[in-house]
Design brief:
Elements lengths: L4 E6 L3 H11 L5 E7 L2 H11 L3 E5 L7 H8 L5 E5 L3 H9 L4 E3 L4 H13 L6 H7 L8 E6 L2 E6 L5 E5 L2 E5 L4 E4 L3 H7 L5 E5 L2 E4 L3 E8 L2 E6 L4 E4 L1 H13 L1
Parallel strand pairs: 1-2, 1-3, 3-4, 4-5
Antiparallel strand pairs: 6-7, 8-9, 8-12, 9-10, 11-12, 13-14, 14-15
Length: 246
Amino acid sequence: MSAPLRALIVDDEELARRLVREYLRAHPDIEVAGESRNGLEAVADIEALAPDLIFLDIQMPKLSGLEVLEATERRSGVVFTTAFDEYAIKAFEMLAVDYLLKPFSQERFDEALARARKLVGRRAPALDRLLAQPVPKLERIVIRDRGHVHVVPVADIHYVEAEDDYIEIHTADRSFLKTQRLSDLEAQLDPRRFVRVHRSYLINIDKLKGLERTTKDSQVAVLANGRQIPVSRAGGERIRDCLGAK
């Protein structure tokens, strides 16, 4: 007899977690490995428990379901449970991402579970497509560092610097490394708040104290924390355009 599949239930609502657990009783070959009450707990539990299946709520405190997948790089055995509106549901259906729309019945749950069983341990291209979809401008950035997950509000960022295959995100009191291209992060941030001032630097315009000319042909952006960031000619024009639009 094969070992039972292990499931993790992720939802900030106790009643929702209880319902999934109740529906799983009809499937004795699946055991509940654990329950997570928010996104941060989910990241830790996925790492610690390595579940075969994850029933994952989308809208949660700490981290959303999509941010959990980004942080853990999990791309298999995921069934979303969501109260999303009809427009978001259409996006899920277009991308062939499996989901359970709350409130859902035992019959609908069993259908989703049957599909998920077939994909256990196999990377689901639909999840890659979902995470690649355009999203509203970021308000926080999820960063994994040596087993820890940091959630950095973009309002706290002073500047971002390109470092080889990484970016270094600087706040007032510390910095974080993240594997991402600067251009990709730039596309996710609000251009009214973050300006590409140099090929290697993005600055938060709200942290800008002023511009100082260092030579006839070069200048730096002076930030609230005293850091001086090199500014190209095109970067200077972007700063002036951004300030003029405020």
